[in-house]
Amino acid sequence: VMASMAHLQKEKLRLQEELLELQEKLAAQENNELSLSLQLQGQVETLKAKLLEQAQEISRLRSELGGTDAEKHRDLLAAENERLRQEMKACEAELRELQRQQQAPCRDCPHLQENARLQEQLSQLQREAEETRAKLVELDLEVQQKTNRLAEVELRLKDSLAERAEEEERLSRRLRDSQETIASLKSQPQQIKYIIKTVEVESAKAKQALCETQSRNQYLQEQVGMQKQVLKEMEQQLQRSQKTEAQLRAQITMYEAELERAHGQMLEEMQAMEEEKNHAIEEAFSRAQVEMKAVHENLAGVRTNLLTLQPALRTLTHDYNNLKRQVRDFPLLLQETLRSARAEISQAIEEVHNTNRELLRKYRRELQLRKKWHNELVRLKNIRVFGRVRPITKEDGDGPEAANAVTFDADDDAVLYLLHKGKQVSFELDKVFPPQASQEEVFQEVQALVTSCIDGYNVCIFAYGQTGAGKTYTMEGTAANPGINQRALQLLFSEVRSKAADWDYTITVSAAEIYNEALRDLLGKEPQEKLEIKLCPDGSGQLYVPGLTEFRVQSVEDINKVFEFGHIKRVTECTNLNEHSSRSHALLIVTVRGLDRSTGLRTTGKLNLVDLAGSERVGRSGAEGSRLREAQHINKSLSALGDVIYALRSRQGHVPFRNSKLTYLLQDSLSGDSKTLMMVQVSPAEKNTSETLCSLKFAERVRSVELGPVSRKAELGSWPSQEHLEGDSSGSAAPPGRGHASPSPGHLSSRSASIRRKLQTSG
């Protein structure tokens, strides 16, 4: 309690010092206000001097012009100004008295905060007084301005009266001159009459004088008329001067009314300010009393609180001592806690590391198992189906028909959705590529199948879809962005080079197309020559095409030349659906023969890359004539492919492979002796949703076909030398293989030589 009392005493001393500082500031402010009031008094004296000068000027004008009503009003205004000055002096005296009362602070009052509030109220009243003084100054300035305007009006009236007097005097002189002239003229005609009477008996000379006299008389009469006209104009000018005088008097009356209105406003404002000042003083006094009473009540409450705070102070002291002991012991507790936390964190980190190592081991084992079972699934299932959606292009047009109707599952890259006739249909394939997928991404998914060709397996990759869906782009691509065909051969060359230390490989390429149900050789001399598909005579049951050109490739440059040569001879035309529509089914047959030099193991693998012609509706494509016949054959062959897929899916005893050249040529790829991949190409445009729906349903049917295990073509035996390989092709039949040529003796070497010459010329 003693400490609290000491603290209160210090607070009291600090408040007293602040009060003294505020009193000093108030004294300085009062000095400033005193100097300001002195300046105002000087300005008032100056105004008085100006008013006296104006009164003297008014007296002088009165003596010159005589007493008028305006002068009476001016006298009244001067008296009113004098009364206002006296009232202003009385207000200043009251203000000084109020300041003197406020300068005597209540030093014995202990409630210094209340004193500060009263001082703030006093400063507010002083600001109000300053505003009142400013308004008085403005009113004095307004009165002075109106007085100046009245003086200017009087000067103008004086000038106008002087001008009027001068004009009247000038007119009176001219009138007198005219009257004298008229009188003289009146006196002359009698003499002329007398002369006329006497001249009647005189001579011709007298007659001439008479004529001259008559002309002069006429001239004088004209002068008299002119003088009368001038007199009339002067009378009109006199009337105008009288009107001007009346207007000036009206202006003077208006100015007097304005002065009276300003005086009334000034009186009302002075009265309102006086009432506001008295009301503010009364309110400040009443508030001071109320606040003083509240301060006394607060002081009594503080004393009561001091008495009740003693037990609380003892409790706080005890709590403080306990906290002090806890703070002294806190570093030891903190160190112990940190040691235990570090130990727990280290143990947790070790457990996480062990868990991560175990998870990594399990992950690697799962990857191996996944790869193993994936290969087993491919071996057992045989046919895999990938889907690829092309982007919206300018050929799709604008408007609702070009809207995107295909969406994808963000969590599953094997599912896509098609919006058809307001309903969303879902399809599940082995893999789905969105429009933004690149050629490289597509090939990464199929390159495992391509490399298995080197190990002696038969592989077939074919693209299916409506016309304009992007099948040729996926399979062939462009020069800057090649497709599966060229990338597959490049990959084969890369794998052959990596195994060159132990293996010898030979890669041969054949290209054919099925146009209007006729099989044609794209690398032969006569591309219009029709070829037939036959069974191999060795009894293996596999198919070959007699007369189909087989060209050996040894580098990427050879591949480019083969592709260019075959692309030139392939049939493409422009339709309403596709500017470069493929009108035939294109087949690229790649045969890879290998020999293990250490064991003598020979392998033969074939890679069939098929670019099917697009299905189309004749009504939409606008096909006519030969284009119509081509479309009919294309749709017939694709329908036969659908029948084969249905028969395989339903496990029928008879599969109609021979219904079409296309299905007959793909018999080995679809009968379980090949790893087969179908790339279904679809368009996302709204106008193509019917064709897209048909393509995706066909893809699901193909995906459900399960074939037997794939066999590897490998046998032990001696492998001929490189020279024997190049020369033996003309003396012996080619080894049997699915979809591959087995030319007659002597035919292969001549055909290959001619192809080499053509490629060298085109290169």
From TrEMBL:
| Gene3D superfamilies from the UniProt entry | Kinesin motor domain
Q: How far does the signal peptide extend, from start to end residue? A: none
- Fetch the InterPro entries from UniProt: Kinesin-like_fam, Kinesin_motor_CS, Kinesin_motor_dom, Kinesin_motor_dom_sf, P-loop_NTPase
Q: Which GO terms describe its cellular component?
A: adherens junction; centrosome; cytoplasmic vesicle membrane; kinesin complex; microtubule
Q: What residue ranges carry the coiled-coil annotation?
A: 5-188, 231-283
Database matches in SMART domains: KISc
- Compartments where found: Cell junction, Adherens junction; Cytoplasm, Cytoskeleton, Microtubule organizing center, Centrosome; Cytoplasmic vesicle membrane
Note the Pfam families from the entry.
Kinesin (PF00225)
**Tagged with keyword Membrane:** yes
List positions binding ATP.
465-472
Basic residues compositional bias, start-end? 754-763
Main site of residence?
Answer: other
Q: Which UniProt keywords apply?
A: ATP-binding, Cell junction, Coiled coil, Cytoplasm, Cytoplasmic vesicle, Cytoskeleton, Membrane, Microtubule, Motor protein, Nucleotide-binding, Phosphoprotein
A single Gene Ontology biological process assigned to it is:
microtubule-based movement
State the annotated membrane topology for this chain: Peripheral membrane protein
Q: Which GO terms describe its molecular function?
A: ATP binding; microtubule binding; microtubule motor activity
Q: Where is this region: Disordered?
A: 714-763
Residue span, Kinesin motor domain: 382-705
Family that this chain belongs to: Belongs to the TRAFAC class myosin-kinesin ATPase superfamily. Kinesin family.
**PANTHER family hit by this protein:** KINESIN-LIKE PROTEIN KIFC3 (PTHR47972:SF5), KINESIN-LIKE PROTEIN KLP-3 (PTHR47972)
Q: What does this protein do?
A: Minus-end microtubule-dependent motor protein. Involved in apically targeted transport. Required for zonula adherens maintenance.
Annotated protein name in UniProt? Kinesin-like protein
